[in-house]
Design brief:
The structure holds two protein chains of two kinds.
Chain A (H helix, E strand, L loop, with lengths): L1 H14 L8 E7 L2 E9 L6 E7 L5 E7 H20 L10 E7 L2 E6 L3 H18 L1
Antiparallel strand pairs in A: 1-2, 1-5, 2-3, 3-4, 5-6
Chain B lengths: L8 E2 L39 H6 L11 H23 L5 H11 L10 H7 L12 H5 L1 H18 L4 H27 L3 H18 L10 H8 L1 H12 L7 H12 L17 E2 L2 E2 L2 H44 L1 H11 L2 H25 L3 H12 L2 E2 L10 E4 L2 E4 L9 H8 L11 E4 L5 E4 L1 H9 L1 H13 L4 H6 L5 H12 L11 H18 L4 H11 L2 H4 L19 H9 L3 H7 L38 H5 L4
Parallel strand pairs in B: 4-8
Antiparallel strand pairs in B: 1-7, 2-3, 5-6, 7-8
Helix pairs in contact in B: 2-3, 2-13, 6-7, 6-12, 7-12, 8-9, 8-10, 10-11, 14-15, 14-18, 14-21, 17-18, 18-21, 18-22
Classes of the chains: A alpha+beta, B mainly alpha.
Bound molecules: zinc ion.
The site of zinc ion has 6 residues of chain B, from helix 21.
Chain lengths: ~130, ~625
């Protein structure tokens, strides 16, 4: 038990390394799985963005995406953010985090209890995961 | 304190909680048909290289080319059939017809000769969302028209333009073009208020703030006012957003966009924004002024079609997603998908295999876990481990809207939550992915996603190896530790063996997966040894076939799984299964594998004769007892 808690702590502290310059951050956590998808502008290339996937073992994979792809991902993320933030029927006691979305300064936590939205987010996460391949 | 929750989520899983299996000791595999591929000559002898033998043909090519795509298509087709049924119930010809109608209502017309690939992408049928925005031109008629109009406009502006009246005509053409597409764009912005606020107002404010020196306040008054009132505007947008779906929402949303759409920022280097009307003290001629106006309009024109294209693509995506979400939750879709995948014969067979794997693992535990307390806890724990099996929700879980029944979260009971989640996903990924997992906490269970139930029919051997892997996670290093029957010490020597450079060079992160594979290989050994000797090699090759079926890096069937924590398929098959001493023994292979070091728990190697394995006629003879099976431990 103790060792597991230590592992988790280590994972969380590792997360903060990536907190700064991203335009979009998606953090997904369910069960043992913890995935992160991050997007930032490539300062070297016009119209190119860097898409980063951090897997459950903190291994990092980067790839370029186009501005069009970035726009679509951001728009879909923003719709989920608004739905969670402004259309949620009620708050959940002891929110167990399922997904955290951060777009610019706005941030939202989707709770595991919010099954309607976790189901909806699943397809979104799947697409991100496919994009990471 | 953070609640520790974790399911070991792996590539493969199966589960069904069904009545106790009482024939554990009988021959499970004897009645299973072998898939045809396993009888094809392989690239190597299974004793030498199990992966080459199972996955590669004698010609050096994969035996399974095209199979992952076929499975993917089969899964998608079942989803399409379910959606078609619901679309018909809603009064459309089929799901594509329904989508076209929904898009039309949102002000988006599809081209007559629609690009099939782009349309599939819009429907998320190719597994990759977010291709290029160029796709917009291939499917939306307004975007196609915009590009045509733009072309004509450019032709007109390139012609000979003598005199003020020709220039004025051109200005009119520009203005008509801009107006036409501006109105269209506003209508589309109104369909997605969150992104209108985010992409238009917020982005412009950020731009103004970050490079304030580039924009003169008196020339950008409207934008500055909007930024000052941003919070107020956003609150109005949220109120509006909460009304989406109500009667006069569309009208209100369009009014909101019309009122708040930012005008283009005038930067210090924007041409004509602050250009003098005189050149070197001489008043400009009318023609000069007209040409300047055209230049400014031309600059504006550059953004018109690209903006329309991206806004159309975004709204179309939203319309399709919203509609799919609705369709996913309809009773017709739910029932259709559950009927297609979770039938009685599959349930019976899945349960048989699941319970058999459980019993074999309990048997294995009896052999290698010497501590009475630990052993007791594990054996008891396995008794309550369930295989997830999706059942149709009761009628009371639905609400009726416009005569059609939709799953209602409020009404669905807690046991049904996994179902609600699966059907809340517009893409219905649960019914399209090849994945399986073991859940350690909450409802402890093994879940084999529908694609695996599909595999079950074609190849029950592979199903067994995957189920055994998932069931095996329960006694893996991590889960055993969390569940207070730490088996770390019991696995130490085995893991050291796998770390060896002559074995698979196990990485620390792969520990749990490798142990689950090993446990699966022990289950296979226990079942395959009950087969007549001449059938064993083919049975083993059939059992590991699943690892041939998909490319770990390429195929898009399994998605949110942990590929990085599994060794390469060839290492899993040849280095774990093919190098398990029990397996080698029952196959009549030499004790040591020529390619990989043999690794196994010493206390669990099956005690069967090394030469002259069981004969056909003995296949169904009385099986050995536990003590017989486990004695002769080295
Ligand atoms: Zn696993």
């Amino acid at each position: 038990m103790k060792k597991i808690m230590i592992i988790l702590t280590f994972l969380f502290s590792a997360t903060s390394t990536f907190a700064q310059p991203y335009l979009l951050e998606v953090h997904f956590e369910k069960n043992k799985l913890e995935h992160q998808y991050l997007i930032k502008k490539d300062p070297q290339k016009d119209n190119k963005y860097i898409f980063t996937f951090v897997n459950e073992k903190r291994e990092i994979k980067n790839k370029h995406i186009t501005s069009g792809q970035f726009e679509q991902i951001k728009n879909e993320a923003n719709r989920l953010l608004w739905e969670n933030q402004y259309r949620n029927p009620s708050s959940f006691d002891k929110c167990k985090e399922y997904m955290t979305l951060k777009i610019g300064n706005e941030k939202t936590r989707v709770c595991q209890q919010n099954i309607n939205l976790t189901g909806k987010s699943y397809g979104f996460l799947n697409s991100l995961h496919n994009l990471a391949k | 304190m953070k609640i520790l929750k974790y399911n070991v989520l792996i590539l493969f899983c199966v589960a069904a909680s069904i009545t106790g299996y009482s024939q554990t000791k009988n021959c499970l595999l004897c009645d299973f048909k072998m898939p045809s591929e396993s009888s094809k000559p392989g690239g190597a002898d299974p004793c030498f290289d199990l992966f080459e033998a199972s996955c590669m043909g004698a010609d050096g090519k994969s035996k399974f080319q095209g199979d992952p795509e076929k499975l993917s298509n089969d899964m998608l087709n079942t989803v399409k059939e379910a959606r078609d049924k619901t679309a018909k119930e809603m009064g459309f010809k089929n799901i594509d017809d329904a989508i076209k109608n929904k898009l039309k209502s949102a002000g988006i017309d599809l081209r007559d000769n629609i690009d099939d690939k782009a349309f599939k992408n819009l429907k998320n049928e190719d597994g990759t969302l977010w291709q290029t925005t160029e796709d917009s031109r291939k499917i939306y008629s307004s975007v196609e028209q915009c590009v045509k109009d733009e072309y004509e406009l450019m032709n007109a502006s390139n012609g000979t333009l003598d005199g003020a009246s020709a220039l004025k005509d051109l200005i009119k053409k520009y203005e008509a073009f801009n107006l036409k597409y501006h109105s269209l764009t506003i209508k589309l912005y109104a369909k997605d208020i969150p992104n209108f606020v985010n992409n238009n107002i917020a982005t412009q404010c950020k731009q103004l703030k970050n490079s304030s020196h580039s924009y003169k306040p008196d020339e950008n008054q409207k934008a500055l006012n909007a930024c000052e009132n941003f919070e107020k505007i956003k609150r109005q947008a949220i109120e509006l957003y909460r009304l989406e779906g109500t009667a006069d929402y569309d009208k209100k949303a369009e009014e909101f966009v019309q009122k708040n759409i930012p005008s283009e920022l005038q930067s210090n280097n924007t041409p004509f924004a602050s250009k003098p009307t005189k050149t070197q003290g001489i008043e400009k001629t009318e023609t000069e002024k007209l040409r300047e106006t055209i230049e400014a309009l031309e600059k504006k024109r550059l953004n018109v079609c690209p903006t329309l294209s991206s806004v159309t693509a975004n709204v179309a995506r939203k319309v399709v997603q919203d509609f799919f979400e609705k369709v996913s939750k309809s009773k017709t879709t739910v029932d259709s998908l559950i009927e297609a995948h979770y039938n009685e014969s599959r349930k019976k067979q899945a349960a048989l295999i699941f319970n058999s794997a459980k019993a074999d693992i309990q048997d294995l535990v009896g052999a290698f876990v010497k501590d009475n307390q630990k052993r007791g806890d594990i054996l008891d724990g396995y008794d309550s481990l369930e295989l997830f099996w999706m059942e149709k929700p009761k009628d009371s879980a639905y609400s009726t809207i416009d005569g059609i029944k939709f799953l209602d979260i409020e009404k669905a009971n807690t046991k049904g939550l996994a179902i609600v989640e699966a059907f809340s996903d517009p893409s219905l990924s649960f019914f399209r992915e090849l994945n399986a997992f073991y859940t350690a906490s909450g409802y402890e269970r093994v879940t084999m996603m529908p694609a695996f139930l599909h595999v079950l029919e074609k190849n029950p051997y592979s199903f067994l190896s995957v189920v055994a892997h998932e069931v095996g996670h329960k006694i893996g290093p991590m889960v055993s530790k969390v569940k207070d029957y730490d088996l770390g010490p019991e696995y130490r020597e085995l893991l050291n063996c796998y770390k060896d450079s002559k074995s698979i060079k196990l990485k620390e992160v792969q520990t749990d997966e490798v142990i689950a594979d090993y446990i699966s290989s022990e289950v296979l050994a226990r079942q395959i040894q009950k087969l007549p000797s001449e059938k064993r090699k083919q049975a083993l090759m059939s059992s590991v076939e699943l690892y041939c079926l998909f490319d770990q890096n390429k195929h898009h069937l399994h998605s949110i799984s942990c590929t990085s924590i599994h060794p390469e398929n060839s290492l899993r098959v040849s280095g774990i299964y093919g190098s398990n001493p029990s397996i080698r023994k029952i196959m009549g292979c030499e004790k040591d594998s020529p390619k990989f070091k043999t690794c196994g728990l010493k206390t669990s190697i099956l005690n069967i004769p090394e030469v002259g394995p069981a004969k056909s006629e003995n296949a169904n003879s009385k099986p050995k007892t536990d003590s017989e099976t486990n004695k002769g431990v080295r």
